[in-house]
Each structure stands twice: as C-alpha cells, then as structure tokens.
Specification:
The protein is α+β, with helices and mostly antiparallel strands. The protein has 5 domains: 153 residues, OB fold (Dihydrolipoamide Acetyltransferase, E2P); 242 residues, DNA ligase/mRNA capping enzyme (D-amino Acid Aminotransferase, Chain A, domain 1, 2-Layer Sandwich), CATH 3.30.470; 80 residues, 5' to 3' exonuclease, C-terminal subdomain (DNA polymerase, domain 1), CATH 1.10.150; 87 residues, DNA polymerase, domain 1 (Orthogonal Bundle); 73 residues, BRCT domain (Rossmann fold, 3-Layer(aba) Sandwich), CATH 3.40.50. The chain contains 26 helices and 24 strands. The strands form 7 sheets. The protein has a 5-stranded mixed beta sheet. The longest helix is centred in the N-terminal third of the chain and has 24 residues.
Length: 707
C-alpha cells in the first residue's frame, strides 16, 4: 500500500485500509526497534508513518483501531528479563515536523488552558538523544532498580547492568525519599567506532549504529558484557516521586544535575514558537559536532503546574512534543507490480523494487495505492509526478520520509518497450468481480467473507489484542486453521475443540503443537466465551468502529441486549433509537449508519447469531468515581466556556465518572450552559433538565475534591 494520497482526499475505504497497513508495519517496526535492537526502518521513516496514522485518525476518528500505533508505546518485554511495572507510565512524545507544527503546539496548549496570546508561557528546548530510554528508581538516595521503557507500563529489569553505566550514580544526596530519574542511555560516536573495531577483531557482527550498540549493550543477560561497554546516560525527566523537585522543568533538571546526573548543556528556555525554532536550528547546526546521535529537539512547557493541568493523552503528554529531523532519497528500478487484497476487500497495488539502501535500511517494495496513482493522476484527475505513469522496468526516485515501504517521488525513465500497467477487474484471490464504485479511488473485491483474503484478515482482527485476544491463536495460527478448513468464521473458533474430537490429542500431533500448547489454546478459547461487551463490539469488525468507539457504545448501552436491540430499532435510520445513537458524544452519522447496517446484512446477522450463542457477554458499566457528584450522570456542554476550554471540561467530567453527550435528550441529567447557548438550552428548558452555569458546574465538581 502506498501512503502518498493527500489525507483530505482519502475515502473512508482508503483510510480503513491504510490504517490497517500502518498498524501492521509499525508493530513490526516496534518489535525490531525496542525488543530486538535491530531497527527495520530509520527514525525519520517511523515518524512519517506515525504522523500519517495520526492525521488519518484525526480526519476519521471513528476508524481508530485497537492496535493503532497512536495507542501503543514501545514493545512487550523480551524473554530472558524480569519485569518491572512502572509506577508512572513511560509515555512517548507527539511529533512536530515543521515550523507550522511548532506554532500549532503552542496554540493548542494556550487553547486547552484558556490562556491569552500575551500570557507569559515559556518552554524548555533540549536535544532528543537517540538512545534507549531508562528509568532509575532511588529510595532514600540509593539506586534500587532500573527498567527499560518496555511497552510503557512494564519494562525490563536491567538493574545490575545499569549499575555498570559510568554516568549513573549509585547513591545521591539531598533527593526526595522516592525519586525515579528518567533519561537516555547512549553511546558516543568515538566509542561506537572503537567497539565495532573490537567486534570485528573478535569475529563478531558489528553494530549498525550507536543506538543499536547502546541498546544491545544495556539489554545483556550477562552484566559483565555491559560493564565492558562504553555507555553514557543523560537525565531529562522523572517518574514516581515523593515530593516535587522544583516549580519548573528547567529548575528540576538543574536539581538532577546537582544530584550528580549528566544533563544536556544545550537545554534552553524559549518564550515563543519563533524562539523554539531558532534554538532547534542552532542545535541542528551543531548536530555533526556533538559526538553523539540526536534525532530532534524536545519542547516542554516549563511551568510544572501548567504541565499538571495539561495532563496526558493515552500515550503522550499534552505539554511536550518532539521536533524531529528528517529524510532521504534513492534511485532504483520497478521489477514487478503485484495486487494485494486487504481485510475490507480493497485491491492495493505494490511495486517490487530492486533492493536499495535508504537511510541505512534496505528497501525492496513501494506501495502504489490505487489505479489512479499508477496512471499518474490524483482523485480529481489532475496530474501527479508530472503525469508520468508507473510501469514495470521504470527507473524511479523513491523518497523515504518514513515509510516502511517508501513513496515513489518521480518516474525518471521508462524502460524500452515497457507496457502500461492494466489494473485488474477481478480479485486475484477469489476471482470475484473487483468493483470500483463511482467516486471511489479503490476497487474492491465483491466476494465478501467468502474471499479468503478478507476472511483471514477479519479472523485475525477478531483474535487481535483489543478484541478476543485468544492466547495461542495469533495471525499465523489463524492462517493455518483457515487453510486447513478448520475455521471460516468467528463461531468456528469455539467449535475447534469439538472439531478435534478429543481436542488436545489430535492438535498436539500437528506441526508446531504439543501437549502444553494445545491445552493452553483450548483453555484460552474456553476463557474467552466470557467476553466484555466492548471487546465483542470491536471484534465484529464493523466499519468505522474502533476500540475506543466500541467502548463508547458499550458504556452507553451497557448490555448486549440493549445494544443489539438499539441497532435493530434504528434499522430505518430514523426514530428515537436512531436519534439516541447519534446523540452519543463521539458517534457520528457515518459510524451510526455502519453499525446499524451491519446488523441488517443477512450474512453478518447470521454470523453474529451463531457467535453469540457460544458467549457469555459481560455488561459494561460507565466509569465510576467514588464521592463524585456527577458519576453516572449524562452531561452536555453548550455555549462558550470562559474559565476552561471545552476539551478540558470534557476530560474532567469523564474523569469524574460522567458521560458527556453531544446533544440534549430526555436522558440528559445536566446541561452546562455558557454565554451564547442556543437550541440545546431551549430544548433542555422544555424537558425540565437541570441547567447550570459554568461556575456552578465548577463548584459542583469541586465537591469531589473536597470530600
């Protein structure tokens, strides 16, 4: 799949397919980078993929997947290491790639905090070290543990290895009783070169770059190896802490330096986006002389009280961002063009390239996105790449701003006697008609669940982590079971043990299976007969319903019976059930229509009925907050909020257990009305709903903090 079509030109189908491919390729990259210390792509490549994923999710929020890269941090702990659960999650950073992104970061913070343009808001700006993230826990001044980032929640216990890093003090004086110091383990260029000379002399494989060398050295099961490696550590943050270090980010970092930690001397204070960019440019000019690798500059709100108000998204802080450096090009030849079929039936062309190294990574494929892209036109018929079509044998320039499979920037030369590529009108997997509907850029297989490509991908989605998450039944096993005609739809998974007769006895004799793995699989399947409502909704693979949307629906309807009944009642896209569905905050008409229509497609309906007959579906209660005066209540905000932003008000309400709705109905408990409130206020008055001002709302929710 090619990730070049402008985001605002993507159709829903194209966006769905791209997000699926992005999730897969980035998951593979995460494992290679965080667990194997052998990155399959460079940082610029990864960042570009992540940026595109976020942009698609912003335009199509209902399409966000359970395995979305925007909801993940790092990778699971590798085997061989003990685990340490972080008291405070080790989050990743959002990215900025140009001056406009930096200005938008400042604007976004001011808007969230309701700060005026002339409010004195300052930031720290520091080099982003390209190394391995590490968290050091000190108790009463003594180093007691060290853990890698891992998946953000659980990291690898590398305590003994960390004790051998020269920049990590074993004891510190004057610190809080509990202090988790966070920073980056890295290797200097000079030490890296010397280490590789040593590796070659010993007949060992040299490291690809300093980051790999640092990560591989710290993540050794034998701490003696780590001790022999020249590792360094920069401190730049903190996690769990028994008392504040200071009032500002900069003063806190200065205090870490006072404890004996190395901190980066290029860290500066900036008051405007222009100053941030100027500092970024200054650091970039020094990049080649620093003696260690950096891949950008990190900006953080300096005032720690404002950081606390800004809080966090699911995987990133709102108060920080990484301004990244970027990208490279190369020239190669298109050796062939093949067509892949995705989970939604989309036919996606892929160019197989003569292998070429770009940014330290060998690439051999480029996605071509769709028929028009190959022809050299965009969705409106305008020329792209100067109108040059792509053919087998072409000499092309590829641009790797981050894609695992890069973009083709330009066709440099057609090979002699090469023919134009003819896009197929039948599915290469099942032979069904491939139909390109009017207004769509993508052709789709009409075979539906009977198409092996779609069926397999839908089943992989069904058993994915945020769906049924059946231990022992991953993508590889799904492919095998489908190929052997053991499963064809979700309900078949719960018949596997019956299909195998005595279950373990037959399965254990299959290649790759034994007594333990077979027993474990059947136990996991039995365990998954009991499933939370949100997981079931997500697992069904309803278009435009991601894991967060599935939870929204589950919390609103609470039970399978209520949810299924509502979808049935809304069949005609009208009436009370339809209006109620559309009133849910975060549910738009596109997602509502997709959910309702899914339950009225006969084959899907039969598939669901067969599936749920094997399940015990657990109700989902709305989040509760003991002592909260608004827990369980449905709240609507309308008009202009003057004391906090709409985003902060909504986040606070939800954290206190309230449900935030986008429209007023008989089920609304509280309407918070600011100046310029309109039709929602009128309707609430007519329905006799409790109406409060913004100040009354703030007074009400403060009761939870005072109790």
């Amino acid at each position: 799949m090619n990730f070049e079509t402008p985001i605002d030109e993507l159709s829903l189908a194209q966006a769905t397919d791209e997000l699926a491919q992005l999730a897969l390729t980035m998951a593979e990259a995460d494992l290679a980078y965080h667990q194997k210390d052998a990155p399959s792509i460079n940082d610029a490549a990864y960042d570009s993929l992540k940026k595109r994923n976020l942009a698609i999710e912003k335009r199509f929020p209902d399409l966000k997947r359970a395995d979305s890269p925007s909801g993940k941090i790092g990778a699971p702990v590798a085997s061989g290491f003990s685990k340490i659960r972080h008291k405070v999650a080790m989050l990743s950073l959002g990215n900025a790639f140009d001056d406009e992104d930096v200005a938008e970061f400042d604007t976004r913070i001011r808007k969230f905090l309701s700060l005026s343009d002339d409010f004195d808001l300052t930031y720290t700006a520091e080099p982003k070290i390209d190394g391995l993230s590490l968290s050091l826990r000190y108790e009463h001044g003594q180093l007691v543990s060290a853990a890698t980032r891992g998946d953000g929640e659980v990291g690898e216990d590398v305590t003994q290895n960390a004790r051998n890093v020269r920049d990590i003090p074993q004891k510190i004086n004057g610190a809080p009783d509990v202090l988790e110091v966070r920073g980056e383990v890295y290797m200097s260029h000079a030490d890296f070169e010397a280490l590789n000379v040593q590796q070659l002399a010993q007949g060992a494989k040299p490291f690809a770059n300093p980051r790999n060398a640092a990560a591989g050295s710290l993540r050794q099961l034998d701490s003696a190896i780590t001790k022999a490696r020249p590792l360094h550590f920069f401190a730049y943050a903190w996690g769990d802490i028994s008392e504040p270090l200071a009032k500002t980010q900069k003063l806190a970092i200065d205090r870490l330096a006072g404890f004996g930690f190395s901190t980066n001397p290029l860290t500066g204070i900036c008051a405007t986006p222009a100053e941030l960019i100027a500092h970024y440019q200054s650091i970039e000019r020094q990049r080649s002389t620093l003696g260690y690798d950096i891949d950008g500059v990190v900006y953080k709100v300096n005032d720690l009280a404002l950081q606390a108000r800004l809080g966090f998204r699911s995987t990133t802080p709102r108060w920080a961002i990484a301004h990244k450096f970027a990208a490279e090009t190369a020239t190669t030849t298109v050796e062939s063009i093949e067509i892949q079929v995705g989970r939604t039936g989309a036919l996606s062309p892929v160019a197989n390239l003569k292998p070429v190294t770009v940014g330290g990574v060998v690439v051999s494929r480029a996605t071509l996105h769709n028929e028009d892209y190959i022809k050299g036109i965009d969705s409106k018929g305008a020329a792209i790449r100067k109108g040059g079509d792509i053919r087998v044998g072409d000499l092309v320039e590829i641009y790797r701003a981050g894609d695992v499979i890069p973009k083709i920037r330009e066709v440099l030369e057609h090979a002699d006697n090469c023919a134009r590529f003819v896009f197929p009108n039948i599915c290469p997997v099942c032979g069904s008609d491939a139909i390109r509907e009017e207004g769509e850029a993508v052709a789709r297989c009409s075979g539906g669940f009977s198409c092996a490509a779609q069926g397999v991908e839908k089943l992989k989605h069904f058993v994915s982590r945020a769906a049924f998450d059946v231990d022992g039944l991953g993508a590889k096993q799904v492919e095998t079971f489908v190929a052997d005609d053991w499963i064809a739809e979700p309900a078949d998974i719960f018949l596997l043990e019956e299909r195998f007769g005595s279950g373990v006895k037959q399965l254990k004799n299959r290649e790759g299976w034994g007594d333990k793995s077979a027993s474990k699989l059947f136990d996991a399947i039995r365990d998954r007969r009991q499933i939370p409502l949100n997981r079931l909704i997500f697992a069904l693979g309803i278009r435009h319903v991601g894991d967060s949307s599935a939870m929204t629906l589950a919390r609103f309807y609470a039970s399978w019976q209520a949810f299924e009944g509502a979808m049935q009642a809304a069949q005609l896209h009208e009436g009370d059930a339809w209006e109620l569905l559309n009133s849910i905050d975060g549910v738009g008409t596109v997602m509502a229509a997709a959910a309702v229509d899914f339950f009225h497609e006969p084959r899907a309906r039969d598939m669901v009925d067969r599936l749920v007959s094997y399940l015990d579906i657990q109700d989902i209660a709305a989040p509760q907050n003991d002592g909260s005066p608004v827990a369980g209540k449905t709240v609507v905000f309308t008009g202009t909020l003057e004391k906090v932003s709409r985003a902060e008000a909504k986040a606070t309400a939800e954290s206190l257990g309230a449900k935030v709705s986008g429209s007023v109905s008989a089920k609304t408990d509280i309407l918070v009305a600011g100046p310029k409130a309109g039709s929602k206020l009128t309707k609430a008055q007519a329905l006799g709903i409790t109406i409060v001002s913004e100040q009354e709302w703030l007074d009400l929710i403060r009761q939870s903090g005072d109790s």
